[in-house]
């Protein structure tokens, strides 16, 4: 009798294990990898930390993905270097405050190794890292360089404080060793999250300083793309992630090296290669017109048409953004304003884009359409303030992404 009881109990245990394992497998099947955060990279400046690099130092950076998940992986870029990059140790943790993490950060591996070598011009993903995160969490990523890193592939003016410390403190939670340095994301250009399959895809914003969040409060995550992410989570059940590929002063036609590659040349790396990309919001043209008022509308429109063709060729929807007013910004001309209006009229009426977001309409002063509304003006006549960034996010018609 006792033997039969043992057999019965063993059978129940086996069935229980099978149910647990099946539950785990079902949970995995309900999840997939999605681009959750990114930044657009460029070459180092001629001076400062990006030029000098780091030696026997730890660089610590904070990013906010705005998405729930149970695993993360990071992407490091050496795109703008002619030499191999060696990172001796990488860690990641949930941000507590400033350079401090909630508990000690966990080690990040690459093909099972704690150090990673990235060839010149390349970028690489880490191994998956088990980590439960919510849409409210920010992530802290630390890179330790034992030897000389060399000049950095980076994103300047990150609107987020960056930190460094002497020695290897990548695995430490505390902030006492760290000091703030030139704001930027160094080598870190992407974070993917394994998230619920209700998240249908990522939307990349390919823009310039307005998209970068210039003149928003540092460390606040009050870029218009952050507000849009929050709105998608609240109103659309987190159906899409928003990836910010804005570079300050970036241009459509002929961008100076220190302002990043011109927008069409960034499509492959900054848009098509992003995990789960569904669409791209192109917010370009204002710097071309401001810095080169002689540029005619046809030239800008033709470049946008070429980008539309390239996006569709790669199976990506593309949405246009009207150019917002910029009078009082120091580079306003009547000639440029005429071009600005012609380009906007084409965007609104041509049907060339898969959708149009009309920032010009909501930001302009009704009494003088060449200027920003005072309540949305950061003070420089070009960049919106945080109220303006919030209004921009509210303007986006979320159903547009359901096509």
From TrEMBL:
<protein>
    <recommendedName>
        <fullName>SGNH hydrolase-type esterase domain-containing protein</fullName>
    </recommendedName>
</protein>
<feature type="region of interest" description="Disordered">
    <location>
        <begin position="367"/>
        <end position="388"/>
    </location>
</feature>
<dbReference type="InterPro" id="IPR036514">
    <property type="entry name" value="SGNH_hydro_sf"/>
</dbReference>
<feature type="domain" description="SGNH hydrolase-type esterase">
    <location>
        <begin position="205"/>
        <end position="390"/>
    </location>
</feature>
<dbReference type="InterPro" id="IPR013830">
    <property type="entry name" value="SGNH_hydro"/>
</dbReference>
<dbReference type="InterPro" id="IPR053140">
    <property type="entry name" value="GDSL_Rv0518-like"/>
</dbReference>
<dbReference type="Pfam" id="PF13472">
    <property type="entry name" value="Lipase_GDSL_2"/>
</dbReference>
């Amino acid at each position: 009798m006792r033997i039969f009881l043992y057999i019965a109990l063993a059978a129940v245990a086996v069935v229980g294990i099978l149910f647990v394992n099946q539950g785990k497998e079902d949970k995995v099947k309900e999840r997939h990898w999605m681009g959750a955060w990114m930044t657009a990279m460029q070459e180092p400046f001629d001076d400062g930390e990006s030029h000098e690099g780091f030696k026997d130092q730890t660089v610590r950076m904070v990013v906010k993905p705005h998405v729930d998940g149970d695993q993360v992986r990071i992407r490091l870029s050496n795109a703008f270097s002619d030499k191999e990059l060696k990172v001796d140790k990488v860690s990641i943790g949930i941000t507590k405050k400033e350079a401090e993490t909630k508990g000690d950060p966990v080690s990040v591996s690459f093909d099972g190794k704690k150090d990673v070598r990235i060839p010149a011009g390349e970028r690489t993903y880490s191994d998956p890292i088990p980590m439960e995160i919510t849409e409210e969490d920010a992530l802290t990523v630390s890179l330790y360089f034992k030897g000389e890193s060399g000049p950095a592939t980076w994103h300047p003016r990150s609107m987020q404080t960056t930190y460094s410390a002497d020695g290897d403190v990548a695995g430490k939670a505390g902030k006492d060793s760290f000091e703030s340095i030139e704001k930027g994301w160094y080598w870190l250009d992407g974070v993917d999250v394994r998230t619920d399959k209700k998240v249908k895809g990522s939307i990349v914003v390919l823009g310039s300083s307005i998209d970068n969040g210039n003149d928003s409060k540092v460390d606040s995550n009050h870029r218009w793309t952050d507000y849009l992410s929050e709105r998608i989570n609240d109103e659309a059940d987190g159906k899409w992630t928003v990836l910010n590929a804005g570079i300050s002063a970036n241009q459509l036609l002929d961008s100076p090296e220190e302002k990043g590659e011109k927008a069409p040349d960034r499509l492959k790396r900054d848009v098509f290669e992003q995990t789960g990309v569904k669409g791209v919001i192109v917010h370009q043209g204002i710097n071309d017109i401001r810095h080169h008022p002689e540029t005619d509308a046809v030239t800008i429109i033709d470049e946008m048409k070429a980008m539309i063709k390239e996006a569709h060729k790669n199976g990506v929807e593309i949405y246009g953004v009207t150019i917002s007013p910029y009078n009082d910004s120091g580079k306003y001309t009547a000639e440029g304003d005429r071009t600005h209006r012609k380009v906007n009229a084409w965007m609104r009426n041509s049907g060339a884009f898969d959708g149009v977001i009309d920032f010009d309409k909501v930001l302009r002063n009704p009494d003088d359409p060449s200027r920003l509304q005072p309540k949305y003006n950061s003070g420089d006549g070009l960049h919106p303030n945080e109220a303006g960034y919030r209004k921009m996010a509210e303007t986006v018609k979320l159903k547009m992404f359901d096509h």
